[in-house]
């Protein structure tokens, strides 16, 4: 019906007042634009509330610019919103402020416009504005009759108050119920999980209520329990939170860097956080402050593992280093207080990024997971190499060593858990554990039971001796990043991409492994049924008749190899064409050099070399080979088709290739400008070439029939129709079979008669 322009940048929010008088839009401009809405027909005319405006000229004009409202903030508009009664307008910016405008009724707006006009006339009279009057401009600011003042947006919208929040505002909302003694109640949602409520009246806005939701505003990247399970520490991209795991209450919140791993030091006085920036942050648990940030590594600190002797810890980083640290007590100069610090005592250099480290409970071995998909095991005392655990196809993201030091379990991005013996490094079992990357794994203390979490949102409970899945726990709504198991194994803590920390308690209710297996099988069966029901109306491929030759439905090694050969040929031909073009340029400039063709192309031109690679594909595999081609390579292949049509022997092959590629990449080809000229040329050439082939085949068939007739007219002609001969042989064979069956049936009858 109407397109309205006027803003100089993108419009972020619009709203209409409840009585449908105004539409207000906000952008990055310093003003809000206000439009008057046209109402329904009154006495055959479209009437607007503003200035009694009526119009019968343009029935499609719904919005009419009413004016602009100046904003105080220079930040862009995030939300504009009217309250339910329509007497207030809130403008939230992408910052910490909300501007509240009061909306005057018709009488007050006209009164304000009249006063504005009166003041303007007084100013003009004071300046001696007689010249302006002589020019005929005497009607500005008034209606057609010269007495009714024109109401503008500044007359209707009046800045009432500016609400300033403590943090950046995420969203706003007016309370639908109007409170007593106040105009409205406004709720603000801040980006630090705080909700603030403001009561608005004519004198201003006062904060009436504020409460905070304890939790992280981003991914929970690590969770760590203290040695006595009384405290829990979680890290995210800008904060470290200390929790009471029993009650779920947040005890401390500490601003920090992007924490990837953490460790609570025994006695629960201090904690360590390894950050993405490569620093180690020492946090005082009692005061909730960061005491020191030690520059520990040149890359992100991926893992922290405590040494069993409680005198130090080990860190692994993306800078290829594994560092051993000791605790020290440091006294600041001029102060009596002492606080903890750390110092590096040893460094183990690795050949690749370190993703995880784990120390055996007897402090004999240290296991280091590297980006090259292997796990290296060293002696802690001498740092000599002991074992290399290899078998994962993708990097190991997490690992843990059992309390008795017999087993080490590794979880990888290849979705598998591998259980190894730490004595010889042999793989006891490889388990396909999760539907996505395994992000955390940990043994239950003094047992061979273990928990694992992954990006498939699941928590799984395993028996590492029997290699069985015991339980699957569902609850998270996004990837599960981290895991912590209590000392007694009575509860576990998980942190997720959905920003939640969940506690899972062990119950006294017994469960049976066979029943859990049956439940999982039933769920799989039901999901298969749902998928089948969902695909009921999907297009189904035609099933060939029994004995008929059909296209292979799956990719095979032959089709993949053929696809790779075609892609290599296209790349080689493209390089050769560039070399030929460069040679032509040099020859045009006068530099006469002999062109040396590529030996790999076997003396063929680039076009013929690609055609040779395509012709070598088996006929039955051609369609699946072309389906595996990326669109960019398919586009290159189409560009060669017009050159190959001059070869009459390859017309059938070219038609098959063109048909498959057009059917497969139709939508992309239609929307790609570079493909249109090639398709236009092919359209004109292919039809002509196919007609020529058809005529040639028809001519040859007619000639063969003529030769057959000539040969048959001669009495001594050795020529015979192969098809008719085959039919004769089949008929004779069937007669013999019938005769044998008849003789057998007669013999049976005679035997019966004798009996």
TrEMBL record:
InterPro entries: SSU_processome_Utp12, TBC1_cilium_biogenesis, WD40_rpt
Every Small-subunit processome Utp12 domain range: 607-709
SMART domains: WD40 (SM00320)
GO cellular component: Pwp2p-containing subcomplex of 90S preribosome; small-subunit processome
Region Disordered, annotated ranges: 115-144
Transcription listed as a keyword: no
Any GO BP: maturation of SSU-rRNA
Pfam family, one: Utp12
GO MF annotations in UniProt: snoRNA binding
Source organism superkingdom: Eukaryota
Keywords annotated in UniProt: Repeat, WD repeat
Stretches forming WD repeats: 4-38, 213-253, 294-328, 389-430, 431-472, 473-505
PANTHER family xref list: WD REPEAT CONTAINING PROTEIN 3 WDR3 (PTHR19853), WD REPEAT-CONTAINING PROTEIN 3 (PTHR19853:SF0)
Protein family (similarity comment): Belongs to the WD repeat WDR3/UTP12 family.
Protein's name in the database: Small-subunit processome Utp12 domain-containing protein
């Amino acid at each position: 019906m109407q397109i309205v322009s006027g803003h100089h940048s993108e419009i972020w929010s619009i709203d209409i007042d409840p009585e449908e008088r105004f539409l207000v839009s906000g952008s990055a401009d310093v003003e809000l634009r206000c439009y008057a809405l046209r109402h329904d027909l009154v006495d055959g005319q479209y009437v607007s509330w503003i200035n009694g405006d009526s119009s019968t000229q343009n029935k499609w004009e719904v919005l009419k610019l009413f004016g602009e409202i100046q904003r105080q903030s220079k930040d862009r508009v995030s939300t504009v919103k009217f309250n339910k009664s329509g007497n207030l307008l809130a403008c939230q910016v992408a910052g910490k402020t909300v501007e509240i405008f009061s909306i005057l009724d018709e009488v007050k707006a006209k009164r304000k416009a009249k006063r504005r006009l009166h003041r303007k006339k007084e100013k003009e009279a004071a300046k001696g504005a007689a010249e302006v009057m002589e020019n005929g401009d005497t009607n500005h600011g008034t209606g057609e009759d010269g007495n009714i003042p024109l109401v503008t947006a500044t007359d209707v919208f009046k800045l009432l108050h500016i609400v300033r929040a403590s943090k950046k505002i995420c969203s706003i909302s007016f309370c639908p119920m109007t409170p007593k003694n106040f105009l409205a109640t406004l709720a603000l949602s801040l980006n630090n999980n705080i909700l603030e409520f403001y009561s608005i009246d004519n004198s201003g806005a006062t904060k009436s209520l504020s409460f905070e939701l304890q939790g992280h505003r981003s991914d929970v990247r690590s969770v760590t329990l203290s040695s006595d399970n009384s405290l829990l520490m979680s890290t995210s991209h800008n904060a470290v939170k200390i929790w009471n795991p029993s009650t779920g209450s947040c005890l401390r919140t500490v601003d920090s860097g992007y924490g990837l791993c953490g460790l609570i030091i025994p006695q629960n006085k201090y904690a360590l956080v390894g950050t993405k920036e490569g620093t180690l942050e020492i946090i005082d648990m009692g005061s909730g402050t960061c005491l020191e940030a030690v520059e520990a590594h040149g890359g992100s600190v991926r893992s922290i593992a405590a040494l069993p002797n409680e005198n130090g810890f080990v860190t692994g980083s993306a800078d290829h280093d594994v560092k051993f640290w000791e605790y020290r007590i440091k006294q600041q100069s001029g102060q009596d207080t002492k606080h903890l610090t750390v110092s590096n005592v040893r460094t183990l250099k690795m050949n690749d990024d370190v993703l995880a480290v784990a120390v055996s409970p007897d402090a004999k071995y240290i296991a280091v997971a590297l980006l090259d998909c292997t796990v290296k095991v060293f002696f802690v005392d001498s740092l000599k190499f002991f074992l290399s655990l290899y078998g994962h196809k993708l990097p190991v993201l997490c690992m843990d060593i059992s309390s008795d030091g017999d087993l080490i379990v590794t979880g990888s991005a290849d979705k598998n858990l591998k259980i190894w013996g730490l004595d010889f490094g042999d793989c006891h079992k490889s388990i396909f554990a999760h539907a996505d990357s395994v992000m955390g794994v940990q043994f239950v203390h003094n047992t061979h039971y273990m928990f694992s979490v992954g990006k498939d949102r699941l928590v799984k409970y395993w028996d590492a001796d029997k290699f069985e899945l015991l339980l699957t726990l569902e609850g998270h709504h996004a990837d599960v990043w981290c895991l912590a198991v209590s000392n007694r194994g009575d509860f576990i803590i998980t942190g997720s991409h959905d920003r939640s920390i969940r506690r899972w308690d062990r119950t006294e209710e017994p469960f049976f492994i066979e029943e859990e297996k049956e439940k999982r099988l039933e769920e799989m069966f039901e999901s298969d049924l749902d998928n089948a029901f969902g695909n009921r109306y999907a297009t189904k491929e035609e099933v060939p008749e029994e004995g008929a030759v059909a296209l292979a439905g799956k990719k095979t090694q032959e089709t993949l190899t053929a696809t790779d050969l075609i892609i290599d040929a296209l790349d080689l031909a493209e390089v050769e064409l560039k070399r030929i073009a460069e040679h032509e340029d040099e020859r045009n400039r006068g530099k006469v050099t002999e062109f040396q063709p590529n030996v790999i192309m076997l003396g063929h031109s680039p076009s013929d070399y690609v055609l040779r690679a395509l012709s070598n594909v088996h006929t039955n595999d051609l369609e699946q080979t072309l389906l595996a081609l990326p669109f960019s390579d398919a586009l290159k292949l189409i560009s060669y088709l017009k050159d190959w049509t001059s070869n009459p022997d390859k017309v059938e092959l070219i038609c098959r290739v063109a048909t498959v590629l057009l059917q497969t990449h139709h939508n992309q080809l239609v929307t790609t400008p570079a493909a249109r000229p090639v398709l236009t040329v092919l359209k004109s050439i292919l039809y002509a070439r196919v007609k020529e082939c058809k005529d040639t085949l028809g001519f040859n068939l007619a000639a063969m029939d003529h030769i057959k007739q000539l040969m048959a007219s001669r009495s001594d002609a050795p020529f015979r129709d192969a098809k008719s001969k085959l039919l004769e042989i089949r008929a004779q064979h069937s007669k013999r079979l019938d005769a044998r069956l008849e003789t057998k049936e007669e013999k049976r009858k005679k035997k019966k008669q004798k009996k």
